[in-house]
Write a structure and sequence with these properties.
Rossmann fold; globular; 6-stranded parallel β-sheet; alpha/beta
Length: about 230
């Protein structure tokens, strides 16, 4: 009997390089609310360890600096920069490089159901996929407002597709930690992807969080899946 395998992908830092645009939004938003003093590289890296939400990362940096501010105010300015003040996708979102080789995604989509499970808003994910001609490869997209967290999203994916096994890749440690509980009674394999711009210890951080194997980029991961089909 052939196993039904599903491939779930994180989005930011895996399929698209949001590091420049998000980092620019974080730095500039922090500077906007703290007398022009933008977020430092050290603050940016530390915030990645604490949260998978870039609005929250920005807010946390400001709070740690002692700035008295409301989260929604921080989020609104971040989005002004990222999507444009009219939320018409004219902001920094258009500066993001596409990381995935569409030929590899196409090959995988012929063999498996592909889905996206991401902490980014769904409309931003769809915009990026359309912009890079990759939307048709994915059967389902679960974004920020579609599930409480990666564990909740993964449970929904399991219920919808009823696969025998799931392979999931993510560039942040927190999802790997949360998904450990699901591994206790289901065949879930989690893999780390090094984001485009990160410190040298990130491979160890992902491994310690629960990633079974860490790849330099999503294309190396896709090649691994295509070359090792006898799971």
């Amino acid at each position: 009997m052939i196993k039904k395998i599903l491939l779930a992908f994180d989005n930011d830092g895996v399929l698209r390089d949001e590091s420049v645009s998000y980092s620019r939004c974080i730095r500039e938003t922090v500077g906007f609310f703290d007398d022009g003093k933008e977020a430092s590289e050290e603050e940016m890296i530390e915030s990645m360890k604490e949260s998978n939400d870039d609005w929250e990362r920005t807010f946390n940096i400001l709070i740690k600096r002692g700035v008295d501010i409301d989260f929604n105010t921080v989020k609104a300015h971040f989005q002004d920069l990222y999507l444009g003040k009219e939320r018409d996708f004219t902001g920094y979102i258009n500066d993001e490089p596409w990381l995935a080789d569409n030929k590899l995604l196409k090959e995988l989509s012929k063999k498996y159901d592909l889905v996206i499970l991401s902490g980014a808003p769904k409309d931003e994910i769809v915009y990026t996929l359309k912009r890079n001609n990759a939307l048709d490869y994915f059967k389902l997209i679960l974004g920020m407002f579609d599930c409480k967290d990666k564990l909740d999203g993964m449970m929904k994916i399991k219920e919808i597709f009823n696969p025998d096994e799931i392979f999931f890749c993510d560039d942040r440690p927190s999802p790997h930690k949360k998904l450990k509980i699901m591994k206790q009674d289901f065949k879930l394999n989690t893999f780390g992807i090094l984001p485009p711009k990160v410190n040298k210890d990130w491979k160890t951080i992902l491994s310690d969080a629960g990633a079974e194997k860490v790849f330099d980029n999503v294309n190396e991961y896709c090649k691994y899946l295509l070359e090792n089909e006898d799971y």
